[in-house]
Amino acid sequence: xxxxxxxxxxxxxxxxxxxxxxxxxxxxxxxxxxxxxxxxxxxxxxxxxxxxxxxxxxxxxxxxxxxxxxxxxxxxxxxxxxxxxxxxxxxxxxxxxxxxxxxxxxxxxxxxxxxxxxxxxxxxxxxxxxxxxxxxxxxxxxxxxxxxxxxxxxxxxxxxxxxxxxxxxxxxxxxxxxxxxxxxxxxxxxxxxxxxxxxxxxxxxxxxxxxxxxxxxxxxxxxxxxxxxxxxxxxxxxxxxxxxxxxxxxxx
Length: 252
Ligand SMILES: Cc1cc2nc3c(=O)[nH]c(=O)nc-3n(C[C@H](O)[C@H](O)[C@H](O)COP(=O)(O)O)c2cc1C
Fold this sequence. Notes:
NADH Oxidase; binds flavin mononucleotide; 29% helix; alpha+beta; two-stranded antiparallel sheet
């Protein structure tokens, strides 16, 4: 247990010099890509751009005060604008650095390294067929990856039988690509990645509350089976958190 705690610590300056190895950045190794490559001959699905959002104007303090983990979802679909809003709020790209060593998004990230990709398992979004997708954040578009049979049941099974998770309209799956952060921060990267992930997840919570949707962060999932489903190698890229999103029943 104590060994596992270690990664949450940082270093005093004298220790840092001794313990933290020279980074690949210092060794002039090529910088990592901040968006996983994809087959660019494939057509992408347009999302609603942020300047056209009509939703999301709720006062910030209302969203903060309402925020809670919501585990009960109706059968309603999300609109394309709602999905676009959530993707923008969690990983939207505002600007890439000119030297391409980082990218500024709607969420903070240590060194602007932004070590995540967002995969979606879509059950119900208006105008989008169900299946697995990836958010192509640099273009604010969606890439279709594949159909998934019996997604609701499968998601429930892969999350330690938490059946409500499969009933969401969409499942957000955040995938870490640690090298993006390791390239500069070597052994301290892993703490930064965990902290970065918390920011992304909290933005999803607050963005959902701002548009009357519900979500819950899900830490209990079957790692290898989820990575296999998303076609990830489990080493250089792997799932780190999932979160169902759906409309929630309003109490009368
Ligand atoms: C990293 C993390 C992992 C979590 N994993 C689960 C989970 O697997 N299943 C679940 O129902 N809730 C999960 N939760 C939600 C917590 O149970 C919830 O945030 C906590 O009970 C506080 O309730 P609140 O979010 O409504 O304030 C997780 C939350 C976090 C931040």
